[in-house]
Amino acid sequence: MKMSWFWLYLPLHLLMATCLSHSIKAPTTSSQQSFKSNLFNFYHSLILADGKETTIHLLKDIPKRYYFVLEEGRVLAPFSITVTPCDVPIEWSILEYKSLPGKAAPGDHDTQEVSKSHKASSMVSTIFNYKGNSVETYMGMSSHSALYLLEFLSTERDTHITVYLTTDTTSGHLYPELPLDPRIDVIGIGPTTVTLAWKHSPSVLQHRESIQYCLLVNEKHNYKSLCAAETAIRSSGMKVPPTLALSLSPYLLEPQQVMILSNSELSIINKVSSGEVRQVCMGTKNTYTVPNLSPSTQYYFDVFIVNLLTNASAAYTGTFARTLEEPEPKVTELRDGKVIHVVLDGKKQKFYSLQYQARHKKIHFTFQLCRGQIRVHITRNGKTVASENLSGLRYFSLKGKLLDTYSVQLRSTEESNSSVKVQASPHFHKPLFPLLPESLKIKSFSKLRTCRSVTIAWLGTQEESKYCVYRKKIEEDQIWRELQSADRCSGPESRHKSEKVLCKYFYDLNLQRAVTTETIKGLEAGTLYLFDVYLFGPSGIPVRYHSKVVKTRKKC
Question: Cα angle vertex 532, ends 531, 537, to 5°?
């Protein structure tokens, strides 16, 4: 059998005559009204394209009809219809108008005579109906000439759907195939991660280059189709690309969106009122660990297999999981004047808790950030008294009551290792660290550079202190690593003796004049050097200035 499209262009009286000549008519007078209604439905229907996905917009409570025709051409004609609701549940049905053979002459249009003599008749039947928001496919087989009418209705609100009709079931599928078991397995759960796995689609094995998996993560519910997920995101105020195959379609992100590209995976995070909605496309990998989730939160996970050439997709059966509660961090007691060096692994241990019971009304907390990025949160008897990101050396002077309990929580704000030195003490007259200048930057003077020397300067304080200068020859490709990996808490004991340049004491009661310069000689021409200055206070604990890289002149 084959498709015939000439029905679309017939005026009403010719359509009626043609239907009668093909025996699609009412056999009795009592069914005349129903017959006329059916003809009216056909005349006010649109033809449904074969082999193409059609997007249909539905208005609330207003049915929309499409039809297609199968004519005799071969013994059996298979066809399939796939309907994908993109929002609310809809109602849809398929009516079949099948011709039955008779002995009437082809030109005989006398309805009453045909009805009376039963020379020809037609059979009208509803062969399928459905109500819901799942993706449904009807597979049919026709052995006679037949006309099919599809009716769609939305009773909740305006919406849209996609419909795919095909009469060629041998040349491949528009939609990627799902495995026999389309479930998503949760194989690992942590406080901030969930690991998922799913069985490979047969389409991946056949068309690896044009197929990829995309994952949708949200805190609301699962979605039964990709267009349903995109509709939900749009309704929340987001703009999304035509499909989650984002790697092929770069587009402008909205202010509420964040794009992350790592290890060939493209992630889009939408900030919406109901929480984050994440879209991740990971190629043909069938396992994925979702990172950076919130502890003790329920998430819903949907996997879609997407054909990058046609943008058609199929949905696995969604799943959900609740992340574990964040484990209570180990609490370490702080003792008066004792320095604790805390190291946080950004990937494994993000939090560290310290506790201190006051034996004086005035308490002094000191933090020296050694490496990475750390946020400190201090509470007194459960109430927050300080919270900020640490930078360099930081003091907190707090006043309370005897036996007040102070809790200090340290949190790494990056995935690399971070470390900090902490001290709690009531002895304000015996500070652990030296008095610091306004800035810990080292300045170099370009005009005073020569092939063999460099002049640097740094700020001092009103307190006489010891300053030691160190130098280190480095290469161009070492600069970033040296500056980023430097432990700002380490002292000169970690340096090679040959790197030491000099040590000196100085101070000035007038801070405007508390500046010292030093010319370092004996250098090589056209060479990069890393310079460090260490400041020592009464306790002997050093504070390291920010490293400075300077290159000597090539020619003088």
Answer: 155
Nearest Cα to 414, choosing from 489, 344, 323? 344
Three-class DSSP labels, 170-225: CCCCCCCCCCCCCEEEEEEECCCCEEEEECCCHHHHHCHHHEEEEEEEECCCCCCC
Residue 40 CB partners (closer than 8 Å, separation 6+): none
What stretches in the chain show pLDDT beneath 70? Answer: 1-45, 71-75, 99-122, 169-173, 236-276, 329, 347-350, 427-431
Q: What angle do CA 370, 373, 377 make, to 5 degrees?
A: 100
CA dihedral of residues 486, 488, 492, 498 (deg, nearest 10): 20
User: Is residue 231 located within the same domain as residue 302?
Assistant: yes
Q: What b/e readout covers 221-250, taking b as 16+ CB neighbours within 10 angstroms?
A: ebbbbbbbbbbbbeebebebeebbbbeeee
Instruction: Give the pTM.
Output: 0.51
Query: And the tokens for 54?
Result: 């059609």
Do 321 and 203 lie in a common domain?
A: yes
Of 50, 38, 48, the closest CA to residue 125 belongs to 38
The domain of 80 spans: 44-98+123-166
Q: In terms of domains, do 369 and 281 share one?
A: no
- Could you tell me the two tokens for 95? 């009516």
* Whole-number pLDDT of residue 268: 58
Domain count, the chain: 4
Asked which of 301, 327, 353 is the last residue of a domain, the reply is 327
Which residue shows structure tokens 């009453």?
Answer: 112
Q: What is the pLDDT of residue 297?
A: 93
Boundary of a domain, candidates 265, 293, 327: 327
Q: What integer pLDDT is reported at residue 75 of this predicted model?
A: 60
Q: Which amino acid is at 459?
A: L
Question: Would you call 294 helix, strand, or coil by DSSP?
Answer: coil
Condensed to tens digits (0 to 9), the pLDDT of residues 294-327 reads 899 999 999 999 988 878 889 999 999 999 988 7
pLDDT digits (tens, 9 = 90+) for 403-460: 999 999 998 888 778 899 999 988 665 667 788 898 999 999 999 999 999 999 999 9
Q: What is the pLDDT of residue 540?
A: 76
* Sign of the CA dihedral running 516, 522, 528, 534: negative
158 and 179 fall within a common domain: no
400 and 519 fall within a common domain? no
